[in-house]
Amino acid sequence: MKDEDRKVLTEFLGECWHEWNPSFTCMKCGIMASINSSDYLTFDTWEDFGALKDAIIEAGKWFEFRRFADLKDPENVGCGNECDTNALFELWFIDKDRFPELILEAIKEGILAT
Ligand SMILES: [Zn+2]
Predict the structure, then answer these.
(1) Distances (CA, A) of 50 to 21, 39, 77, 94, 110
(2) Cβ contact 81:40 at 8 Å
(3) Which among 15, 20, 82, 103 is least surrounded, fewest beta carbons within 10 Å?
(4) DSSP secondary structure string, 21-56?
(5) Distance between Cα 21 and ligand 1 center (Å)
(6) Is residue 17 situated within a structural domain?
(7) Would you state the pLDDT for residue 114?
(8) Per-residue DSSP letters for 56-96?
């Protein structure tokens, strides 16, 4: 995933996409850069999947996002509200790599405002 996409998702979670100054302090939130741990979310883990899912629910947008994703599933395109009965959808949807991509698309299409 590109950095600019990870930045969008990080800010969707309400977290800082750090910008380091020469003394390794973030110019936006003030934390110090750490040597041992990653300072940026990668959005390829189940932990990040869960954080994104919780953020959508907290924003009150789960229904809108779920419907948006339904219509993006190649197996479901064109079946409207009948898609909810397609059990294959969950296998396609609950995917730690696809899920963040769907959220990015939803943000770009205005389904999930940031
Ligand atoms: Zn920061």
Answers:
(1) 31, 18, 26, 10, 21
(2) no
(3) 82
(4) -TTSBBTTT-PBP-SSS-SS--S-SHHHHHHHHHHH
(5) 10
(6) yes
(7) 61
(8) HHHTT-HHHHHHHHHHH-TTTTT-GGGGGG-THHHHHHS-T
> 113 lies in a domain?
no
Distance 25 CA to ligand 1 centre (A): 8
What CA–CA distance (Å, rounded) separates 99 from 89? 12
Tell me how far the alpha carbon of residue 111 lies from the centroid of ligand 1, in angstroms.
Answer: 26
Domain carrying residue 57:
3-108
Q: How far is the CA of 85 from the centre of ligand 1 (A)?
A: 43
28 Cα–ligand 1 center, Å: 5
